Amino acid sequence: MTEGSGVRGSVALRNSWSRQRPVSAPTMPWPLLLLLLLLLLAMGRAQTTRPCFPGCQCEVETFGLFDSFSLTRVDCSGLGPHIVPVPIPLDTAHLDLSSNRLEMVNESVLAGPGYTTLAGLDLSHNLLTSISPTAFSRLRYLESLDLSHNGLTALPAESFTSSPLSDVNLSHNWLQEVSVSAFTTHSQGRALHVDLSHNLIHRLVPHPRSAGLPMPTIQSLNLSWNRLHAVPDLRDLPLRYLSLDGNPLAVLGPGAFAGLAGLTHLSLASLQGLPELAPYGFRELPGLQVLDLSGNPKLNWAGAEVFSGLGSLQELDLSDTNLVPLPEVLLLRLPALQSISVSQDVRCRRVVREGVYPRRPGSSPKVALHCVDTRESAAKGPNIL
Ligand SMILES: *[C@@H]1O[C@H](CO)[C@@H](O)[C@H](O)[C@H]1NC(C)=O
Ligand SMILES: *[C@@H]1O[C@H](CO)[C@@H](O)[C@H](O)[C@H]1NC(C)=O
Ligand SMILES: *[C@@H]1O[C@H](CO)[C@@H](O)[C@H](O)[C@H]1NC(C)=O
Predict the structure, then answer these.
(1) What is the value of pTM for the model shown?
(2) Is the CB of 8 under 6 A from ligand 1?
(3) 57-222 and 228-348 share one CATH topology?
């Protein structure tokens, strides 16, 4: 997760605006200002601990010249359910409440000075079976929320609408049916990454197009290891990354990925059951760059038309499938293809073998796959597949 840097960056910025004494920039000579800036850039950040609520650890990171702004990470993990609501310092950026056997969170558990400006909250490894719809309503700057490893069976409809979330981790819960609308955030257009892996999801309820609610800004969605028998309707989401690994998907045919023209990465590894790739199943994905079909020894496929329409595909992972050896006609279907993994250790790259010179006008260069076994590459020469 990219949680750390992003969170830190924006909080630091916010704090610098609110906490720094106003520097009278207009009266300061430019060389001095430049020197200040260089000093600021040259300074590392310092870490210290500070007094904290009993049992918790408070770690302060200071930034800038004369430690002009600071933020605190508060770790209250593994202390037990009595710890909430815990008072936290005003400049707390990240609060860890993981592994506390918490059964319930509501707005009174997450309230007090310091909570309003919290950017990261870790509630993983608790015993949460439900969350109150208003639990996070006061966390107006929350960007990263970890609810993984709980017993959540449902998500209230508007849980995240008050927060500018960019990362929500709901993996390892007991969710069965999830509404896409539940991920409506106070995002103002920023991308949202949602991890729903390792749940029991058999249905994803599409966002109603007619409703007044804005479309959730989900850019990556991890639905791996759930109970989906078909690709859910995700149309109109600004999705770029989608993982459906480990689901019992049946037939992937035309229309399966309708409305996902912006998708660049798709992972369909280790599908359960007897998955089948039908012709033109990927034709709605003209922007797809990376496709992972690895770990599917029982995958049935119906010829080269399966890969029709994948005009931007650069990387294809076919390791541990029965789709190799591949006919080289695939290279013509996939004009942008750069590399194919055919097994854990064997990777093939597209090469252009020049014909006789000068090349006759109209003749196309011969393309081929050049495969290298990474285990043996040191000892043996490469093979041409
Ligand atoms: C979500 O949490 C799980 C379990 O704690 C972790 O393995 C996974 O990497 C997290 N997902 C993201 C996107 O960080
Ligand atoms: C919030 O949850 C706590 C238990 O964690 C409970 O004691 C309290 O009554 C709840 N407050 C509201 C407003 O529901
Ligand atoms: C999705 O989740 C699985 C299992 O938690 C993990 O292995 C995988 O890396 C995740 N994929 C992405 C794209 O985050």
Answers:
(1) 0.83
(2) no
(3) yes
